[in-house]
């Protein structure tokens, strides 16, 4: 369980997260949705302990970050490191002994090629594979479906369901509502650094319609396309 | 074209300022340091000319980064692109050329001009199908990445060791060891992305110990051919050899600690000065190492969240 109490994050004078209060439970999948710049990534970085903040983030673990797998929107790779070495590096960091990485190559990635030569989607899949092999209890996935092909999208969706079934806590941010609707138990709507509301599964379709209306409105009509 | 070079000059200045070096000091001290290092190299070995050209070409090849070249090709015509690249390579070779001419090594100077111009014609695109194997895969990343970038130095170092044995010149053998340690030290000069520190479930102290252990193990592997060769053929100098080898460990450790003591930034001028002073007066390391260690623990604490 992770409990966030009065979490506030400021960059200088600018408040990026304002008094966030959320609870994430074990064995559940949570979606975080909001416009670009709403504060989703900052919230994830605070939970991971990559940012300083005011407020509290409590968890069942002595040090949350040591049991947390973080998938960044744009994972960073060294220029001359292979996919296999990247996985090894992240496993070493958590003292995990990895045997036979090949059999765990979920997305059939060319593991002996330099990771920096991978496409955007392949990089994301490699980073996801690496955090899955770290045996984490909490997964924070920032835009896991971005740039990923449709087949892998299906694999990731099933993977999230499997993580839920094995009692992991999963936090996802995504702009692809259908995948969130399929995997999440609850979705939090974030705007200007504040949680606007929490939406339960039964109300997902209403939220989607509402977001569509809010995002699109009559903007396209204004173009007067002929 | 002129704007491109003016921009490069501005970028160099910005880098120096970001590194904490006042421009006036930078433009006077860097050439001086370059001059004395070059002089020292030429006084150490008769193969300095070869090494010097090789070193210059190594630096020049760094300007042939494919993405940058693709960008230049997209904004300049083919003719202008070749001119820009040739001039750029020539500018980088000027310090080396000047010193070679000062040493009256005209043949090497000429070879450098020709080879650097020749290199402008090539785009050093990494072959995506070829991955250079390394023996360091169990503990990535510093040595795996570093070795792949500097692999060509090691045959040179081993060749120098071989030459030192053939011509019975112990100093040349020591020089080859200096070359290896400097290359290994260079693997620890740039700070890595925070994600690769954050991921460790170790305390700052254990994190640093692990980094040092890996560095020492892999450095020893790379130095082993030199140590074995020199200890067999220069048995009378074995004590000096061991002492020097141990000292190289100390400098490697100092660099690792200095790197994390500045994290997330690159090593700054005061740290550089401390290391430089320690090269002249090694006993100062007794104070420098604990200082860097304490600073490193402090800097790493925010990412590693030490529970102790």
From TrEMBL, chain A:
Keyword DNA-binding carried by entry: no
Keyword check for Transport: yes
Domain annotation ABC transporter: ranges: 2-217
Keywords: ATP-binding, Nucleotide-binding, Transport
InterPro entries referenced in this protein's UniProt entry, alphabetically: AAA+_ATPase (IPR003593), ABC_transporter-like_ATP-bd (IPR003439), ABC_Transporter_VariousFunc (IPR051782), P-loop_NTPase (IPR027417)
GO molecular function terms attached to this record: ATP binding
PANTHER family per record: ABC TRANSPORTER ATP-BINDING PROTEIN ALBC-RELATED
Protein name (record): ATP-binding cassette domain-containing protein
Organism this protein belongs to: Flagellimonas okinawensis
Native organism taxonomy: Bacteria, Pseudomonadati, Bacteroidota, Flavobacteriia, Flavobacteriales
